[in-house]
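ok trying this again, last paste got cut off
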Amino acid sequence: MISLGFVTLDEQQESVYCTEVARRAKQYGISIYRFSPLAIDPRTENVRGVVFDDKSGEWTDAVFPIPPFLYDRCFYGHDDRSKKAKPIMHWLKQRPDVTFLGYGLPGKWSVYETLSAHPLLSAYVPPTVRLERADHVLDLLRHEQAIVAKPVHGSGGRGIYIIQKKGKTLSVQDGRGQERAVITRRNELEQFVASLQRRDGYALQPLLSLSTEAREPFDLRFLLQKDETGRWVERVRAVRIGRPGTWVANLRAGADMRPFADWFDHLPSSKRILVLDSIDTIIRTLPAYMDNELGPLFEIGLDLGVADNGAVWILDVNSKPGRKIISLLPPEQQNDIYEAPLRYCRFLASEVANR
């Protein structure tokens, strides 16, 4: 049997998804374990976690060696557990006897630089600058009415700020549309920039016009995974629509997820052609390119924005995409997503055996 470890920071995180994967594992000759990186004994390198029992369909407590194949689903914050877990995961990813389904992506700034270097993909990347001092904000606002500051290690729409010109002042709102500051002097802007840098690195972009006729923020989400031959395939696409008055379409911020066709079918035919051509170019090009430059990867959550003029923009590339999008699929297609980690694990096992 092949041993595959499902690694999460919190032992109960994504338990439904992991259980669905585990229920299908036996037919692939795979045993599924679940554990936190903090549960590894540094002396014995044994793990205290749970193993899925095929007969009972339940998880049972167990102590076991580090599985040779690992599925990294750790999401980090600024808490102590995250700070302790990161170096352990880095250590695991350096081990020659352990193979990860995907090794993850670096911060958004590295992803931006990589995308900007591609002759095709660079056309879909919004102009972006690294926020290092107040002048970077002022320089961008000379050409834009509003800009967005994004944490380079953020996810779920957290930590995003919208900076708008309002007369001789600057209004700072969070992603939920709540005003957080009114800046009237340069030293206040410098203090605000310093406060962001203490928390995380930040990047600045123009605020793109990405909203519905009802002034709801929206974006497009695509889930891409590798199949049993290591080839990239698209599993599902959807549209995420946020609440009026907010700036982000992330589900954590109260956005609603709907079938892609619900949005696309209302586009004028002339815009459909432009949008589809851009989407196809990005999906055909981006996964393999990111895989080669920053991977290896197993799955990608790709967020695209569509402006009023039909221009398509790459908003985010995530190597640990969420799972709520699965609910839009019929049961047989949901099954493909649950079996994808198992099929790809078998592929990797054959690759390791043939080295």
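PB: full thing came through this time. The longest strand covers residues 232-241.
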